[in-house]
Write a structure and sequence with these properties.
CATH class of the largest domain: Mainly Beta
Strand content: 25-35%
Largest sheet: 6 strands, antiparallel
Number of strands: 22
Radius of gyration: 44 Å
Shape: elongated
Helix content: 25-40%
Length: about 400
């Protein structure tokens, strides 16, 4: 009997202790925390964060994009090629530049065009008073009148010969004089042509009443006057240029190629032209590679001819050119201005929408230096990458992260 009481008391104490322990556990538990699985909510949070990772992107308005001067480049298959970078300068197309030199000496009477004016072929540039021109025109007019006279005599004697009134010997003399008159006129005409008069001007000369000493300098090509070297009343010679006219519809890009890299440069290779800010200006192909090295700089010369009908290229500007030397490479070359560095490494900014930019982590070849770098991985064809003022996007990204951390 005594043993039964001890067992019953022990059972009651065990139940009481178990109940008290459970109540104590409930009291200490966090609201919403499961008693059976205390870490269940944290696992769910982790799963939730894996399903919806935090997106890092920057949204700019069109006004901000314009104000920040954000410029991009869309990567095409052609960008994944081995390239060499060279310094260069935009110059005038030497085949489209004319140095206007008067063909006779004289005094400047009128100037019709000035520096920077656009001119058309045959348009008058200036008028000169020249004694030599007056003499040449006088000789032509004299030969022209003599030919007219000799022609009348020839036609008259020919009729008389047919009527057997004129002797054949006299007719032959008249014919010879007529032929000589034609030769003299042709010689006078050729001299005027050599003095830059046109056939049309010469043919109208006999009917004009203008002074014979006036000589008009006409534009030999379409273009723009980039130099002018004459003033009113100035006495000029026939061996000095008075105008320089350049046709700017096309320009040249001259590249300086080192002797070590010259063997890799060939005619018709593709070239991308970049401004010093990193933005792509245009593309073209190599027109000419000089076989001669410069003795002073020990560099070769390569020329690219580019269309400039929109006048966006300015002779005198310095550029950077990338020549494609291997079209089978899998590296992409970007201006170094596209790269930014954060705590984890290098990033570029990819444009994912009209107003959205996202950082993209990339890696580059270790030996990359200078204005362009070769990307080993991280980018694909079709990616639109910011190549100018990307540091402003990095600043905006850091600003956004700092605001989220508070």
């Amino acid at each position: 009997m005594k043993k039964k009481k001890i067992i019953i008391v022990s059972i009651i104490m065990l139940i009481t202790f178990s109940t008290a322990f459970t109540l104590f556990k409930v009291f200490l538990a966090e609201p919403g925390e499961s008693l059976n699985h205390p870490h269940e909510s944290h696992v769910q949070d982790e799963k939730h964060s894996e399903e919806k990772p935090e997106e890092k992107s920057i949204t700019l308005s069109p006004d901000q994009i314009k104000r920040f001067d954000i410029q991009t480049m869309t990567l095409s298959k052609s960008h994944f090629q081995k390239r060499l970078t060279f310094p260069g300068q935009i110059t005038l197309n030497e085949n489209k530049v004319t140095h206007v030199v008067p063909t006779v000496p004289g005094t400047v009477k009128d100037i019709f065009k000035g520096l920077g004016d656009t001119v058309k072929l045959g348009e008058s540039l200036a008028t000169i008073q020249s004694r030599e021109m007056a003499e040449a025109k006088s000789a032509y007019l004299s030969a022209h009148k003599n030919l007219s006279l000799q022609k009348d005599l020839y036609e008259r004697d020919e009729k008389l010969l047919k009527q057997k009134v004129k002797a054949e010997v006299q007719f032959i003399q008249t014919r010879n004089l007529y032929e000589n008159a034609k030769i003299n006129l042709e010689q006078a005409k050729q001299k005027l042509l050599a003095l830059s008069m046109t056939e049309e001007q010469i043919n109208k000369l006999a009917d004009q009443n203008t002074p014979l000493n006036l000589y008009t300098i006409d534009a030999p090509i379409d273009g723009k006057i980039i130099e002018r070297h004459l003033t009113l009343g100035e006495v000029i010679s026939n061996d000095g240029q008075v105008f320089v006219i350049a046709n700017l519809d096309t320009v040249w890009v001259n590249l300086a190629i080192s002797s070590e890299e010259l063997p890799m440069i060939k005619k018709d290779q593709k070239v991308d032209i970049f401004a010093h800010g990193g933005q792509l200006i245009c593309s073209g192909t190599i027109m000419y590679v000089s076989p001669v090295m410069s003795e002073e700089s020990r560099t070769g010369r390569a020329i690219i001819e580019l269309s400039n009908t929109e006048r966006k290229l300015h002779p005198g500007d310095f550029i950077k050119a990338q020549i494609v030397v291997d079209e089978t490479a899998d590296l992409v070359s970007l201006p170094s201005s596209a790269l930014q560095r954060d705590e984890q490494g290098l990033i570029v900014f990819k444009k994912t929408a009209t107003d959205k930019f996202e950082p993209q982590r990339v890696s580059i070849k270790e030996e990359n230096t200078g204005d362009f770098v070769e990307i080993v991985n991280g980018l694909s064809e079709g990616d639109e990458i910011v190549i100018k003022n990307s540091f402003l996007l990095k600043a905006e990204l850091e600003k956004s992260e700092a605001e989220h951390s508070h």
